[in-house]
Amino acid sequence: MCYCLVLVESTTIKDNTHFFAPGDNVEVTEGELVNLRGKVVSVDGPKVVMMPDHEELKEPLTLNISELRKYFRPGDHVKMISGRYEGDTGLIVRVEHNLVVVLSDLSMDEMKARPRDVQLCADITTGVDSLGQFQFHDLVQLDQQNVGVIVRLEKETMEVLNQHGKVLRVKPQAIQGKKDTRHSQALDSQQNPIQCRDMVKIIDGPFAAKKNEEEKQGEIKHVYRSWVFVYSRKHVENGGMLVCKARHLLLIGARAGTTRSMKTPLMVLSP
Questions:
Q1: What pLDDT sits at residue 1?
Q2: Which CATH number belongs to the domain containing residue 35 in this structure?
Q3: 254 pLDDT exceeds 90?
Q4: Is the model's pLDDT at 132 over the cut of 80?
Q5: An example Gene Ontology cellular component term from the record (predicted)?
Q6: Could you tell me if 19 and 99 lie in one domain?
Q7: I need a surface site. Which of 100, 232, 240, 264 has the fewest CB within 10 A?
Q8: Is 158 part of any domain?
Q9: Greatest mean pLDDT range, 18-32, 138-152, 203-217, 254-268
Q10: Per-residue pLDDT at 234 exceeds 90
Q11: What's the rounded mean pLDDT across residues 169-187?
């Protein structure tokens, strides 16, 4: 198998003291072993123990941190260890000049970071904020009149898609609380009651399919009054989350002109 290896930025002692870790893929940048590649075994101050990837070198080597730089393969799974996206994980999709572009496991958005802020990682982020209060895709109360769904969790802030389709960056302390919408319902375009976990088609409004486009559909995550938050894998923005009016939706499996019987009374969230 042939891998396309992309080398990224030389590193300094200051940078690497904090950001090199066992398991990192590295390349020697100077001295007799220049271009030798290997994997970090341990880091001790300004020294790195590296296991070389070379058939004639079977023993670990100790090198100065300043002699090494990281390299990544497209397809490597990594974790953001500092910066704006700290704690997020994803897949490297490409490497640009002194930047790696990572596709987030949670939001499916692209994140750009310096290689020194990235580390190889097998785990996938849980989508829980640093205080453990909120999760990815929670519906939260922003103020007395507005709610929104969390579409990105960052180190100190979160991005929330409100019921009007706007993305706001807020601090967790500003959130008034979470909303439980498991039993909330609304009526779709054919007066069918729809609720959390129902699969729906978007047949009207700004997200309806244009001419020659495939019809967009998704799973209802939350119902709030006449607004419905729908998760669609084909929606590339905001981690696949979009918000629609209930009347712009059609319950999948329901036929036009018919209604699904209501097993429970229609419930609408109070402010």
A1: 42
A2: 2.30.30.30
A3: no
A4: no
A5: DSIF complex
A6: yes
A7: 264
A8: yes
A9: 138-152
A10: no
A11: 93
More confident: 18 or 260: 260
CATH of the domain at 196: 2.30.30
> If we measure between CA atoms, which residue out of 222, 217, 255, 209 comes closest to residue 234?
217
Does a structural domain hold residue 257? no
d(CA 120, CA 203): 42
Residue among 242, 236, 164, 166 at smallest CA distance from 200: 242
Number of domains the chain is built from: 3
- CA dist., res. 27 & res. 52, Å (int): 9
What's this model's pTM, rounded to 2 decimal places? 0.59
Measured CA to CA, the distance from residue 136 to residue 70 in angstroms comes to 31
SS3 198: coil
User: Structural domain of residue 224, as residue ranges?
Assistant: 185-251
For the CA atoms of 186, 224, 88, 111, the dihedral, rounded to the nearest 10 degrees, stands at: 80
Q: Is the same domain home to 56 and 149? A: no
Q: If you count them, how many residues does the chain have?
A: 271
152: tokens are 């990105």
Planar angle of CA 236, 242, 247, nearest 5 degrees: 135
